[in-house]
Design a protein that fits this description.
The protein is α/β, with parallel strands linked by helices. The chain is 41% helix and 17% strand. The chain contains 15 helices and 19 strands. It has helices spanning 3-29, 61-74, 93-116, 137-149, 166-177, 216-229, 247-257, 283-295, 308-321, 339-342, 345-352, 372-388, 399-420, 435-454, 465-471, and strands at 33-35, 38-41, 44-49, 79-85, 122-129, 155-160, 182-184, 195-196, 202-203, 209-211, 237-242, 270-272, 301-305, 328-332, 360-366, 481-483, 486-488, 501-507, 515-522. The chain has an eight-stranded mixed sheet, with helices on both faces. A seven-stranded mixed sheet has the order 12-11-13-14-15-18-19. Helix 9 (308-321) links the parallel strand 13 (301-305) and strand 14 (328-332). Helix 2 runs parallel beside helix 3 and helix 6 (216-229) runs parallel beside helix 7 (247-257). The longest helix has 27 residues, at 3-29.
């Protein structure tokens, strides 16, 4: 073979070898994807997608497709992107149903925001899965920050955030540090919040953060306000709290410990330690000892600072111990809104006992309840009739009740419309657990901020993320948001001013699966929101 051919073949061989090595290396290092924009990492599908991907959770498949359909409908119109960030995979059926409720609220809120004001920009909604307990949030935040800088994506807000964890706080901090507005729809922990001062100013730990759910401290004050009005001032209380580091548990325990009781002092606080939010571990054994200690005291009311999974176990253990046929009321925070979904028929029987009489009733400050506004308006009208005679005129009715009722009527209309149009949301939205209502209100609030920031600008342009973030503290008075969960009037710190808590009782009754009953409203300030939701210059 001529020398030149040997050299040519050698060169071709080297090229083939290099190409083969490069291809092999590429295949080895190429991410294993679940869908466009979603990477598989140790069994989790982590990333961002707005094209109908369900993240391997069949319960949310229908609503994910509905969101994608709405995205396609508005893609030719001026629009921005809003990300819904929360864990979207779980081995527990109850948690998957909760995800569906959250996303149903997001879709219905997107739909109403895109149709309600009739103004640009429209909302393109994407789903962002940060993994279990937000463990992969850094990778997802990286993606969201790129989307915020992208002229095609135009990410202008991130919402969702359903767990008050250190990882959640880190995600919110990083997003707001990069001037991406965050609307936390379902966080109640006190740590992930800006601090309002008495002079009306604020300490902005997270510039660009807004919340629509009262903090645990406000919820505890609302519970105290409600129970005080009912004359339950001689309660003998005890605090039971989870020692596991968790922003929700810690702030709820702190809030309950500050409640001023007028009755006799109860026993000292009692602690337990759970292994994780969704793991029981040895808590059942710990609760046996705790329940026995409570039985030996004169306490009749338990403030419980812990997650829903552990609240259910504690309630069942307290009923099982017996305590000389005494009845107990357990008071807890907003996470308890998921308790009823976790209860089985056998659980209800255990809470009742052998004679059918309730042993344990659970009361909690729910973020919202669909019966609140109708029930409260009926009571208000009855009181008016006693003092004024006759029926009140529409203009006499309190705004803090009529406007949320009107908003809830609109939400129910959207639910009816989706059914009429044959849109599959996986199930008919269940408003009782408040999740759908809260997330819906969050999208309405973002839509209001977008439309306010857009005013006066050409339809072809979209507001900057700084423009949107500046709107949070302006959403009060005339620009209040009429939410299904109550009037949303944001302070300088982006917190909801005097947002009511719907006090709800889970009562086992005497038979059946028990009832979830709205029993009244509690107000963090001890009084209703002022007319037009004008925030006073000095806030308590």
């Amino acid at each position: 073979m001529p020398r030149w051919k040997k050299i040519l073949y050698a060169l071709l061989g080297a090229v083939v070898l290099v190409a083969g090595v490069a291809l092999t290396t590429s295949l080895i290092h190429r991410p294993d994807t679940c869908a466009d924009g979603v990477e598989r990492i140790e069994g989790e599908c982590v990333g961002v997608n707005g094209e109908g991907y369900d993240f391997g959770t069949p319960e949310i498949a229908g609503v994910a497709r509905a969101i994608a359909r709405e995205n396609r409908r508005i893609e030719k119109q001026p629009h921005v992107t809003v990300a819904m960030m929360l864990p979207l995979q779980s081995d527990r059926e109850a948690l998957r149903r909760q995800m569906r409720s959250d996303l149903q609220g997001a879709y219905l809120g997107q739909r109403q925001a895109n149709a309600g004001e009739g103004e640009p920009p429209k909302i393109r909604l994407v789903l962002a899965n940060p993994g279990r307990d937000y463990g992969r949030q850094e990778k997802v935040v990286d993606t969201l920050l790129r989307m915020a800088d992208s002229p095609e994506d135009r990410l202008r807000a991130v919402t969702g955030f359903n767990l008050s964890l250190a990882a959640t706080e880190a995600a919110v901090r990083r997003l707001t540090e990069h001037k991406v507005p965050v609307l936390a729809a379902r966080i109640s922990g006190d740590r992930i919040a800006n601090q309002d001062r008495a002079d009306g100013m604020a300490r902005l730990r997270f510039p660009g953060l807004a919340r629509i759910l009262p903090t645990n401290n406000d919820a505890a004050r609302a519970l105290a306000d409600f129970n005080g009005e009912r004359g339950r001032q001689n309660l003998k209380t005890v605090l039971v709290y989870d020692k596991r580091p968790d922003g929700y548990n810690e702030s709820l325990a702190r809030a309950f410990s500050r409640v001023e009781e007028k009755g006799p002092a109860g026993p000292a606080a009692m602690s337990f330690e759970s292994p994780a939010i969704d793991e029981a571990g040895s808590t059942g054994n710990q609760f046996t000892q705790t329940a026995n200690n409570i039985c030996d005291s004169e306490a009749d009311t338990v403030y419980f600072a812990g997650r829903t999974l552990h609240l259910r176990l504690f309630a069942l253990k307290l009923a099982q111990v017996g305590c000389d046929d005494r009845h107990y009321t357990i008071i807890s925070g907003s996470d308890a809104a998921s308790l009823r979904q976790a209860m089985t028929e056998r659980d209800w029987e255990r809470l009742r006992g052998d004679d059918g009489r309730p042993k344990v009733t659970v009361q909690y400050a729910a973020p919202a309840h669909p019966d609140a506004w109708t029930t409260e308006l009926r009571s208000w009208t009855a009181r008016w009739a006693k003092t004024h005679g006759g029926s009140p005129r529409p203009r006499d009715l309190p705004q803090y009740l009529t406007e949320p009722k009107a908003a809830l009527d609109v939400l129910r209309g959207q639910i009816t419309a989706t059914r009429r149009e044959g849109i599959d949301l996986g199930s008919v939205p269940n408003l009782e657990d408040s999740r759908t209502m809260l997330v819906y209100d969050g999208l309405l609030t973002i839509g209001k901020a977008l439309h306010q920031a857009q005013q006066g600008a050409p339809d072809s342009t979209v507001p900057t993320r700084e423009d949107v973030g500046r709107q949070w503290s302006l959403l009060h008075s005339r620009h209040r948001v009429q939410g299904t969960s109550g009037l949303i009037c944001l302070t300088t710190g982006g917190n909801p001013y005097d947002k009511p808590a719907a006090i709800v009782e889970l009562d086992p009754g005497r038979e059946g699966r028990g009832t979830l009953k709205f029993v009244g409203l509690g107000w963090p300030t001890g009084r209703e929101q002022p007319k037009n939701c004008v925030i006073p210059s000095s806030t308590p």
